[in-house]
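Quick question: what would this complex look like in 3D?
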Amino acid sequence: MTEAIDPTVFYLIVFVLAVFVGYHVIWNVTPALHTPLMSVTNAISSVIIVGALLAAGPAGGDFGSIVGAVAVGLAAVNVFGGFLVTQRMLEMFRKKQPKSGEKKH
Amino acid sequence: MSGNQVALWYLVASVLFILALKGLSHPESARRGNLFGMIGMAIAVVVTMAIVENRVMIILAIAIGGTIGAIVSRRVEMTQMPELVAAMHSLVGMAAVLIAITAVNNPAAFGIPDPMPAGNRLELFIGTFVGAITFSGSVIAFGKLAGLGRHFRLFSSAPVVFPGQHLLNLALALVMIGFGVAFFLAPDKAWVAFGVMTAIAFVLGVLIIIPIGGADMPV
């Protein structure tokens, strides 16, 4: 075989395999963890910040880089907020040490 | 850093994201999973920063956005967490739309030839309509979860239904796809097709979420 493979085919392969991985990783999550799961998948979705960084990337303050920088800011809210919210939710699942005080929620 | 090195680091980040999700499947591993997610995100961001030029503006944007995210996530009550997640997710949707706009405006920034080939157009079509629906749908979800129905009827936690709703949604979806096809086939930037398609997607996001009751908002 001497013909080169179009990169789009590789992207399609990654996409299909990712769909399978995603399905299998999520399927066995215990119901009690569904809300933190929703929160962490939201946090991970802020990886779109990479696209925003590339959009804002080119030097110079033109339309594209300003709109891109706004997109970076929006995604950054979710990068930090998303994982911190998940962490707060997961702290409720910590095995409670025997303590006289109680966590304030 | 070469393109190949960047891609390999993205692979590391992707593996960490998968491990993050896997960690969330059991309470014992859940907090570690969240940490893996954070590390993966940090790697993806730092590696991308190495290949862009406009670093000052970007770092400013990250600092502002990150601070807002950190403050809000710390101060909100636990009972308000679901609506906070919905609100934050709407930002991700809007970011996707903005990125698509910059890609149509300046394909060269992404290494895409101008005028854009069909494959990239298809990807931008999908990206922008998913982003727009995510944005407006998440805003409605936020409103419903926050119980803001008394301020604005579309935020009512009771399902908002009206006759012909499904037909309207279907018709709008078909029109949106039509404009998407127009954008796909166009030889030039086709801002009109792109813009109308995105506008319809925003409307659809509202329309498909409003009939869902507030208790089912994890949608």
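Answer marked as accepted. Residues 97-105 of chain A have pLDDT under 50 and may be disordered.
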